[in-house]
Amino acid sequence: MGKTMNLKESLIHNHSILLNAKANDWKQAIKLGTDVLVKANVVEERYYDAIVSAVAEEGPYICIHDAFALSHSRPEDGVIKTGFALTVLETPVFFDGVDEPVDVLVTLAGKDSEEHIEGTMQIANLIEFDEDFSLLRACKTTDEVIQLIDAALAAVEDEAA
Length: 161
Fold this sequence. Notes:
Layout: H1 7-13, E1 17-21, H2 26-39, H3 46-58, E2 63-65, E3 68-72, E4 83-93, E5 102-109, H4 113-129, H5 134-138, H6 142-160
Parallel strand pairs: 1-4, 3-5
Antiparallel strand pairs: 2-3, 4-5
Helix pairs in contact: 1-6, 2-3, 4-6
Subcellular location: Cytoplasm
GO molecular function, one term: kinase activity
GO cellular component, one term: cytoplasm
Protein backbone atom coordinates (compact mmCIF):
# COMPACT_ATOMS: atom_id res chain seq x y z
CA MET A 1 0.00 0.00 0.00
CA GLY A 2 1.33 3.47 -0.94
CA LYS A 3 2.24 6.01 1.73
CA THR A 4 -0.64 8.39 2.37
CA MET A 5 -0.19 12.03 1.65
CA ASN A 6 0.26 13.60 5.06
CA LEU A 7 -1.15 16.91 6.22
CA LYS A 8 2.03 18.92 5.71
CA GLU A 9 2.94 17.40 2.32
CA SER A 10 -0.59 17.86 1.08
CA LEU A 11 -0.79 21.52 2.14
CA ILE A 12 2.52 22.27 0.40
CA HIS A 13 1.84 20.17 -2.70
CA ASN A 14 -1.69 21.50 -3.24
CA HIS A 15 -0.93 25.11 -2.27
CA SER A 16 -3.89 24.73 0.04
CA ILE A 17 -3.13 27.02 2.98
CA LEU A 18 -5.41 30.05 2.97
CA LEU A 19 -4.63 32.79 5.50
CA ASN A 20 -6.76 35.87 6.25
CA ALA A 21 -9.41 34.39 3.99
CA LYS A 22 -12.68 36.23 3.60
CA ALA A 23 -16.06 34.51 3.86
CA ASN A 24 -19.47 35.99 4.64
CA ASP A 25 -20.96 32.76 5.96
CA TRP A 26 -20.14 29.13 6.72
CA LYS A 27 -20.97 27.96 3.20
CA GLN A 28 -18.47 30.39 1.70
CA ALA A 29 -15.91 29.34 4.29
CA ILE A 30 -16.31 25.69 3.27
CA LYS A 31 -16.17 26.59 -0.42
CA LEU A 32 -12.77 28.29 0.01
CA GLY A 33 -11.29 24.97 1.13
CA THR A 34 -13.07 22.77 -1.39
CA ASP A 35 -12.29 25.15 -4.29
CA VAL A 36 -8.56 24.99 -3.65
CA LEU A 37 -8.79 21.16 -3.57
CA VAL A 38 -10.80 21.11 -6.80
CA LYS A 39 -8.06 23.21 -8.39
CA ALA A 40 -5.44 20.76 -7.08
CA ASN A 41 -7.43 17.83 -8.52
CA VAL A 42 -8.01 16.31 -5.06
CA VAL A 43 -11.83 16.48 -5.12
CA GLU A 44 -14.59 17.02 -7.66
CA GLU A 45 -16.86 20.10 -7.46
CA ARG A 46 -19.64 17.97 -5.97
CA TYR A 47 -17.62 17.38 -2.78
CA TYR A 48 -18.63 20.90 -1.70
CA ASP A 49 -22.33 20.20 -2.30
CA ALA A 50 -22.09 16.96 -0.34
CA ILE A 51 -20.62 18.74 2.71
CA VAL A 52 -23.19 21.54 2.60
CA SER A 53 -26.14 19.15 2.26
CA ALA A 54 -24.82 16.97 5.06
CA VAL A 55 -24.48 19.99 7.38
CA ALA A 56 -27.97 21.15 6.37
CA GLU A 57 -29.42 17.69 7.12
CA GLU A 58 -27.40 16.53 10.11
CA GLY A 59 -26.47 19.83 11.71
CA PRO A 60 -22.95 21.15 12.25
CA TYR A 61 -21.23 17.75 12.72
CA ILE A 62 -18.07 19.29 11.28
CA CYS A 63 -17.64 21.69 14.24
CA ILE A 64 -15.48 19.45 16.41
CA HIS A 65 -13.62 21.94 18.60
CA ASP A 66 -14.04 25.57 19.68
CA ALA A 67 -13.62 27.88 16.69
CA PHE A 68 -12.73 24.89 14.48
CA ALA A 69 -14.52 22.95 11.77
CA LEU A 70 -13.30 19.79 10.06
CA SER A 71 -14.98 20.08 6.72
CA HIS A 72 -15.38 16.64 5.16
CA SER A 73 -17.71 14.19 3.50
CA ARG A 74 -17.50 10.58 2.34
CA PRO A 75 -14.95 9.24 -0.17
CA GLU A 76 -17.73 8.44 -2.65
CA ASP A 77 -18.85 12.09 -2.64
CA GLY A 78 -16.19 13.08 -5.16
CA VAL A 79 -12.81 12.42 -3.55
CA ILE A 80 -10.17 11.82 -6.23
CA LYS A 81 -7.27 11.40 -3.81
CA THR A 82 -6.51 12.13 -0.17
CA GLY A 83 -5.73 15.75 0.57
CA PHE A 84 -6.15 18.64 2.99
CA ALA A 85 -6.79 22.37 2.86
CA LEU A 86 -6.37 24.75 5.79
CA THR A 87 -8.39 27.94 5.92
CA VAL A 88 -7.91 30.65 8.54
CA LEU A 89 -10.62 33.30 8.24
CA GLU A 90 -10.12 36.99 8.80
CA THR A 91 -13.56 37.17 10.43
CA PRO A 92 -15.21 34.12 12.04
CA VAL A 93 -18.46 32.67 10.68
CA PHE A 94 -21.36 31.10 12.58
CA PHE A 95 -22.84 27.66 12.07
CA ASP A 96 -26.47 27.13 13.04
CA GLY A 97 -26.65 25.53 16.45
CA VAL A 98 -23.05 26.33 17.45
CA ASP A 99 -22.41 29.10 19.98
CA GLU A 100 -18.75 29.63 19.14
CA PRO A 101 -17.97 31.24 15.80
CA VAL A 102 -15.50 29.35 13.61
CA ASP A 103 -12.40 30.88 12.03
CA VAL A 104 -10.20 27.83 11.47
CA LEU A 105 -11.30 25.15 9.01
CA VAL A 106 -9.50 22.10 7.73
CA THR A 107 -10.99 20.50 4.64
CA LEU A 108 -10.26 16.78 4.68
CA ALA A 109 -10.70 14.59 1.64
CA GLY A 110 -10.04 10.94 2.47
CA LYS A 111 -9.75 8.47 -0.41
CA ASP A 112 -10.97 5.66 1.86
CA SER A 113 -11.93 5.28 5.50
CA GLU A 114 -8.42 4.33 6.56
CA GLU A 115 -6.89 7.46 5.04
CA HIS A 116 -9.77 9.50 6.45
CA ILE A 117 -9.00 8.27 10.00
CA GLU A 118 -5.27 8.81 9.51
CA GLY A 119 -5.94 12.37 8.32
CA THR A 120 -8.19 13.08 11.28
CA MET A 121 -5.45 11.95 13.68
CA GLN A 122 -2.91 14.31 12.08
CA ILE A 123 -5.33 17.20 12.54
CA ALA A 124 -6.00 16.16 16.15
CA ASN A 125 -2.25 16.44 16.83
CA LEU A 126 -2.26 20.02 15.61
CA ILE A 127 -5.30 20.90 17.74
CA GLU A 128 -3.74 19.34 20.81
CA PHE A 129 -0.55 21.35 20.24
CA ASP A 130 -2.28 24.68 19.56
CA GLU A 131 -5.50 24.29 21.50
CA ASP A 132 -6.86 27.80 21.15
CA PHE A 133 -5.33 28.30 17.67
CA SER A 134 -3.50 31.41 18.83
CA LEU A 135 -0.26 30.15 17.24
CA LEU A 136 -2.02 29.36 13.99
CA ARG A 137 -3.81 32.73 13.89
CA ALA A 138 -0.44 34.43 14.44
CA CYS A 139 1.01 32.81 11.29
CA LYS A 140 1.44 35.37 8.53
CA THR A 141 2.88 33.09 5.86
CA THR A 142 2.49 29.58 4.55
CA ASP A 143 6.01 28.80 5.79
CA GLU A 144 5.06 29.77 9.35
CA VAL A 145 2.07 27.42 9.17
CA ILE A 146 4.34 24.58 7.97
CA GLN A 147 6.76 25.26 10.86
CA LEU A 148 3.84 25.12 13.29
CA ILE A 149 2.74 21.74 11.89
CA ASP A 150 6.34 20.50 12.20
CA ALA A 151 6.44 21.63 15.83
CA ALA A 152 3.13 19.88 16.54
CA LEU A 153 4.40 16.65 14.98
CA ALA A 154 7.68 16.89 16.90
CA ALA A 155 5.72 17.31 20.15
CA VAL A 156 3.69 14.18 19.38
CA GLU A 157 6.83 12.20 18.58
CA ASP A 158 8.45 13.33 21.84
CA GLU A 159 5.44 12.04 23.77
CA ALA A 160 5.56 8.73 21.92
CA ALA A 161 9.30 8.29 22.56
